[in-house]
Amino acid sequence: MDSFEETAVRACRVAGEYLVAEFERESHDAEHGANDVKATADHGAERRILDVLTAAYPDHAVFAEESGERSGGSSYRWVVDPLDGTNNFCSGIPYFGSAVALLREGDPVLSVVRDPLHDHTYVARDGRATFDGDPVRAESSVSSDHATVSFVLGLDAVRDDDLRTQAAGLDATLAGRCKRVWKSWAPTLDWGLLARGKLEAVVCFRPDEVEQHAGWLLAEASGTRLANEGDLFLAAASDEVFAELREALF
Predict the structure, then answer these.
(1) Using CB atoms within 10 A of its CB, is residue 241 exposed (0-12), middle (13-18) or buried (19+)?
(2) Region 106-121: what's the mean pLDDT?
(3) Quick one: 70 exposed, middle or buried, by C-beta within 10 A (0-12, 13-18, 19+)?
């Protein structure tokens, strides 16, 4: 697992260096759709990550956000989000990152999340989570009525009318039980903040695969309280917030 971690961290670092350089430019080439943004930087970061991963493990399967699925001959599969927070990136908002998860026979065994602007790296593996190499635990003493909760919607939930209606109901429920509902559009970084106890909870509705594997494993490894029912996921940094939100949402 050490070699897998080293390779994943290196891949995210290479992508991050590229993204920081691109972010400093005055304008960015991008296609702006009704529900999503695709930037040239997405493809550039993905290419750099895949170059590192495929050179080290040519027999591994890979699913990457921009290029899709590539089959492999082993039990390992990499899931890559090269630029999480593309809308932020293109709008000049300094909150974006890269994430890589490694699955073995379908189960996540390694997660790496890179925050390149702040030179931070989160890693989850073997039941432990680290932040820049130091162990972290998701613990917060902030009560639910003062909590900041990240609310994450997958693209399916944004594009479908019925799912948007369900999401609006969840949003209203959260707003009635915490101080702030945080919608960053860069959920892998939110998972990192939760792992450090900086956020009180993360709630996801129909999350995208390229983000969820890395984030959920980081939550598990940092000791968050977890609940999942169908397309709805809850992770919290305290027993009180977890109990309050679980009762309200499930």
Answers:
(1) buried
(2) 97
(3) middle
